[in-house]
Amino acid sequence: MLSSSIPLIASENVTSIAVRKCYLSDFGHRYAMGEVGKRAYSGCRYIDEVERLAINLTKKLFECEYVNVKPISGTVANIAVYRAFTECGDKIAATPVEFGGHTSHFDTASIRGLRTLKLPFSVENFSIDVDRAVKLIRKEKPKLVMLGASVMLFPHPVKEIAEVCREVNSRLVYDASHVLGLIAGKQFQNPLEEGALVVTASTHKTFPGPQRAVIFGNPREDAEKLDYSVMPCCVSNHHLHSLSAYAVACMEMLEFGESYAKQTVRNARALAESLASHGFNVFGEERGYTESHQVVFEGGAEEQNVLEKNGIFVNVWPSTRMIRAGVQEVTRLGMKEGEMEYIAELMARALRGEDVRNEVRELSSGFNVVHYSFDSSLGSHLSAHDPSIFDF
Description:
Number of strands: 16
CATH architecture of the largest domain: 3-Layer(aba) Sandwich
Structural class: alpha/beta
Radius of gyration: 21 Å
Oligomer: single chain
Number of helices: 13
CATH superfamily of the largest domain: Type I PLP-dependent aspartate aminotransferase-like (Major domain)
Helix content: 25-40%
CATH topology of the largest domain: Aspartate Aminotransferase, domain 2
Largest sheet: 7 strands, mixed
Strand content: 5-15%
């Protein structure tokens, strides 16, 4: 499927061959409950080395004091933060789901008995309305404020929200799941530098790693509380094969992350501008359409289905007329601005009723090697879609 399509799902990416080999390692059979050097199981010497390596690489990438690499999904990471920083019945605040906020900031938070307040949102700026959000936080004094979102074109007002959080003794957490790779590549806001206490993130969107998650930051006296909230409260075994894969992805991002993130942002802007030139109603025009990997334009299920039939994959944001596209995966496969312009043309033609499936297949066939990775050292004959990667 991947070799004959244009994948523009904003929450996905393609991993390198080196990362995939870790997925299929013997670590997938093993358990390592407990902390590094203090496991409940024997035989964890090398697992300890890998986890220690993953922690240190994360600290280097994000310039932080505290790291926990045990969460197995972004939602689990957020649940652990709720367990550490709130009590049942507390209020938290987050970006509304109808404007791109994540369900783990709302529905999932209810398992802790939390009530989530909706941060006011400016559709014109496609970001949180700072003045109204500050008033809400001052009035309601939530125990926790969650920034970051699943639809995120521009940086969130971390500095301004951090200031009012300090004033009312709230903790500010930044869910970087969608923009983690852009932060690692130093092409997006650094939430820790701007005042966030802790960052949670999944590791498989703009960050081209395995499907798991990480928590990091500078939580001072809260570090032990966070660790306990992750394990044993939310995780027992923490999927060691994908942990080792995450460590490899960290190495790749240290080596190639900046160039990859720069091209991702350039591609997103090129796609947005090209879609607008073809008559699409692209959100965020006043601010240059996007500063992330995402492009958002007006459309619904009918448009999504037409594009899917032609091999172009996007997704409608639930209960809206908003289609979200992400360019991080096609960027990793080597596409640049010229391909973004062509993709926009193909999308426009498909929605006018043309059959562009053959052109989509032809374009995709030329981009099947994972870039910004160590794959070249494994043999240039190995492609993103080559089943022989499993022969070892």
